[in-house]
Specification:
- The protein has 21 helices and 29 strands.
- It is of the alpha/beta class.
- Strands 10-9-11-12-13-18-19-20 form an eight-stranded mixed β-sheet, with helices on both faces. It has a six-stranded mixed β-sheet with strand order 1-5-2-6-7-8, sandwiched between helices. The protein has a three-stranded mixed β-sheet with strand order 27-29-28.
- A hairpin with an 8-residue loop joins β21 and β22.
- The longest helix is centred in the C-terminal third of the chain and has 35 residues.
């Protein structure tokens, strides 16, 4: 750090030396009394911030002595303010409609950016022009109508304190001073709109380009502190975060060079290290001098990395200007800056007026000499200076050859404000004297002498002033004494040859509501080439693209976040969404989860392969069952049909026939009738079928038990027992179904969540408990039937059905036991397919296992279908 400071101190010394082409050893006890005067019936006092009086000490550690230099540094660009005032006076005096027979004059004093000389200049304006005697007026003198100034808030504040004593109107063309509770309200008029609109415009600009991670630079003064305390919280509430907020020390007087260099190096490093590509600079006219130091530091410090260019957002008081020692400093860093400026308009006559300016033709101008020397880097010969080194000023140098940071030929916004201030005072004076019918002047040796007026009388006419200036803009003040106007949004274009151009790219309207006042044409903005002419981004991290949502990083501002994928079933359709959201019920997320796709309606229909296949199988086995039934009917008198209880056999076959046909109720678009019948029909028909199997099993068991000698089972064997079993078991299931219909019957429903991308039309079971009760009851009948058949499977008879019923019930139970977990784990229309398959499989198992052996004997082995075979015993 010590070596770094040594190097920068030497650099600063060299800068100050090279800033002046002509070296002059001077030591002013106070600045020279610069002023510019032109007589008139009414005078406008003007206090400008034109010259900086610098007195600096730099200690060189290599030498025990100190280097002291004192000099006047002219802010050459501010000289246009003087020309704007003179031009405005000329326009007013040449207008016969404004104050006829009255001439406006002016006094211009320099404030030197210090309180002492600002108070001195303000007191001079209230004294006689020949001598400085405050509060004393003697003899004939011109009347001071109003004071215009100053450019910086402190200058305006010091002037306002003095003028408030005399009630002289003050028109401020720069920053308004910050008033605290200990100071009574000072009377002044602002030639700038309310800054609330500027703040709203900056916020709208940031939100328009989605610049949410920014750096902030302010002056370390009351205005800067007010900006931080009152404006930035509003930015934060609208989603703007701050990478850093730095306060810039005032550089009007270089009293501690070491501290300034250290502070500048720290701020420079913070800017370069930050991810923020946008910097908001809030300050006053001289803020640019410090900002240019930041640029210079990146060039003179060897260890500094390649500079990262930023998008600067400048407030209305900051202009691109330079002082003499910054003549050759690079301004490329400010190329592409977006600046707010008080609304101004083009005045071609002003440029013509400026082109005629030269030291030889305007010798009464007390500022033009110093301006000319520092602007062109030359010196006018003078006997007081003695021998000089460097270029000699000829007075023929051209102002339009100066860089834009030194001087502009077109009127700047501050100069335009001065022009409007002069016009406002002239119109107010005209209104005041026009309101006095007896106000007649009398001729004397000194010209027209009007009735004496008091300073306070002009206030009411200034507050009510309303006119269109020569550029066509409407000029008036609101109830707070602020100009009713908007702000222009300016794009700074700086060419490689350091030429400077201001291009209007937007507007902050004064009449529209704040949330609608901002407009910008981003297509005409020229960004710095470092951004490859693409719109710059200023984010703490990369955007979260659609399909992802933000997750705030713990311990960091909300603008810093991570990106996490959306959970299943949710999407995010825009960048940087705080959370993912579900699609509407009619839609579902795509694979990337960045937009919603319309769902298609899904149900098991006859038009799709699965529905066609199941329907075909159902009809096929229905036909087979019908064929078996027909075969048994044709051979109903044969022993094998008679031995197996013909009535139960026919009942079982008819129930199996309906079991196959009931599957057709499950295929097709769910309707009220089909939803109500499908489970009820399935439950009752299957109960009948299983009851028949149970009855046949019991009848086989009892038949073999009854043939034993002395058996008491013989009285139970008969048709009535089988019919009773079928009827009683079926009625129990019918009762369960009736209770189901009465309490919570099935109904058509829509399932939008089970299957991605589908709206499943289904039958809601109404009561799941009742549905599983039906299944449980059928399972109970099947288990009982299986148990009885299992024990009767080895009874000695060639036509014993027990062994076949055992296999059929084994298949039946296996199918429906596997149905339950499969049903619960299946979604969408496949649920219906699972149930149909279970019905078809279990029915087919009963049909094949029980009736295929009998059909084989009836159709292919008819010789076995006789009574001898029926009564034959196995050995």
């Amino acid at each position: 750090m010590v070596d770094f400071m040594k190097m920068l101190l030497v650099v600063l010394s060299c800068i100050m030396c090279k800033a002046h082409v002509v070296q002059r050893k001077i030591s002013y006890p106070h600045p020279p009394p610069q002023k510019y005067y032109r007589s008139g019936n009414f005078l406008l006092g003007v206090i400008v911030s034109q010259t900086l009086f610098v007195s600096a000490e730099i200690t060189f550690t290599e030498e025990p002595t100190q280097s002291l230099f004192e000099d006047l540094i002219v802010v050459t660009k501010n000289y246009q303010h003087i020309l704007a005032l003179e031009f405005a006076i000329k326009v007013m005096n040449e207008n016969p409609q404004i104050l006829p027979n009255i001439t406006l004059g002016f006094y211009i004093y320099d404030s030197y950016f210090t309180a002492k000389w600002t108070f001195f200049a303000a007191m001079q304006l209230t004294s006689q022009s020949e001598r400085f005697v405050p509060n004393y007026k003697c003899g004939m003198q011109n009347t001071l109508a109003a004071v215009i100034g100053g450019l910086d808030s402190q200058t305006s504040f010091h002037v306002a304190i003095t003028l408030d004593i005399y009630k002289i109107p003050q028109l401020i063309y720069g920053c308004a001073p910050v008033m605290n509770d200990n100071i009574s309200g000072l009377s002044f008029y602002r030639m700038a709109p309310n800054e609330v609109r500027q703040y709203a415009g900056i916020l709208s600009l940031l939100l328009h380009f989605r610049w949410i991670w920014i750096g902030v630079l302010t002056m370390d003064d009351d205005n800067g502190e007010r900006f931080i305390r009152m404006v930035l919280p509003g930015f934060y509430e609208r989603g703007i975060c701050f990478a850093f907020i730095e306060r810039i020390r005032d550089m009007n007087f270089v009293t501690d060079t070491n501290d300034i260099l250290i502070s500048g190096k720290r701020i420079h490093d913070k800017i370069m290290d930050s991810k923020a590509n946008v910097l908001v600079a809030y300050g006053e006219s001289h803020t640019m001098w410090y900002l240019r130091w930041l640029v210079y530091l990146s060039a003179v410090v060897p260890e500094t990395a390649t500079p990262k260019y930023k998008v600067w957002i400048m407030t209305a008081q900051i202009e691109l200007n330079s002082v003499a020692y910054q003549r050759f400093w690079d301004t490329e860093m400010f190329h592409g800056t977006i600046a707010f400026a008080i609304h101004s308009n083009y005045l071609p006559e002003f440029q013509q007026f400026v082109e005629t300016r030269s030291p030889s033709s305007n010798q009464e101008d007390g500022f033009i000499g110093d301006f000319w020397q520092q602007a062109f880097g030359c010196v006018f010969p003078s006997a007081l200076v003695g021998e000089v080194d460097g270029d000699i000023c000829t007075g023929e140098e051209k102002l339009d050859n100066l860089p834009g940071s030194f001087f502009e030929m077109s009127m700047t916004s501050h100069s335009y404000s001065i022009f409007n201030a002069v016009s406002a005072v002239a119109h107010a004076l005209h209104a005041m004297y026009s309101s006095r019918p007896n106000n007649r002047g009398s001729e004397n040796g000194r010209g027209l002498k009007f009735q004496k007026h008091q300073h306070w009388q002009l206030h009411q006419f200034l507050r009510g002033v309303s006119f269109n200036n020569s550029a066509g803009d409407y000029i008036s003040f609101d109830q707070n004494g602020e100009l009713v106007a908007g702000f222009d949004v300016i794009n700074w274009i700086i060419s490689p040859n350091q030429s400077f151009q201001r291009v209007k790219v937007g507007r902050m309207d004064s009449e529209a509501p704040l949330d609608q006042a901002f407009t910008i044409n981003e297509d005409v903005i020229i960004w710095h080439s470092w951004f490859n002419q693409a719109q710059p981004l200023s984010l703490c991290n990369d955007n979260c693209y659609p399909g992802y949502s933000k997750k705030i990083r713990e311990g960091q501002p909300f603008c810093c976040y991570d990106c996490i994928p959306c959970p299943e079933g949710k999407i995010s359709s825009k960048k940087d969404m705080p959370d993912c959201y579900k699609c509407r019920d009619e839609y579902y997320p795509n694979k990337k989860q960045d937009f919603c796709i319309p769902r298609h309606i899904s149900f098991l229909s006859y038009e799709e392969p699965l529905g066609i296949s199941l329907a075909f199988i159902a009809f096929f086995f229905t036909f087979i069952t019908g064929f078996v039934l027909g075969t048994f009917i044709r051979h109903h008198n044969t022993p094998i049909v008679i031995a197996n209880n013909r009535n139960l056999t026919y009942t079982l076959l008819i129930s199996l026939l309906f079991c196959f046909l009931c599957t057709l109720l499950f295929i097709g678009r769910p309707q009220n009738v089909t939803c109500l019948l499908r489970q009820i029909a399935f439950g009752i028909i299957f109960s009948v079928a299983v009851s028949c199997v149970l009855a046949k099993t019991i009848m086989v068991f009892l038949a073999f038990m009854a043939i034993k000698p002395g058996s008491s089972m013989r009285k139970w064997v008969g048709k009535s027992l089988g019919n009773s079993i079928v009827l009683s078991c079926s009625l129990i299931q019918a009762g369960i179904c009736t209770a189901w219909i009465a309490s919570s019957p099935p109904f058509p429903d829509v399932d939008m969540h089970s299957v991605m991308g589908e709206i499943v039309l289904e039958c809601n079971e109404g009561s799941v408990t009742m549905f599983y009760s039906i299944l449980a009851y059928m399972g109970f009948l099947a288990i009982v039937s299986f148990t009885v058949a299992f024990f009767a499977r080895k009874l000695p008879d060639s036509f014993n059905e027990a062994k076949f019923i055992t296999f059929s019930m084994l298949i039946f139970c296996s199918v429906w036991l596997s149905f339950v977990p499969t049903y619960l784990s299946t979604k969408g229309k496949n649920i219906v397919a699972v149930e149909i398959f279970s019905i078809l499989a279990s029915s087919t198992g009963l049909l094949i296992c029980i009736f295929s052996p009998k059909c084989y004997i009836i159709l292919l082995r008819s010789e076995l279908n006789n009574k001898d075979q029926l009564i034959r015993r196995t050995c």
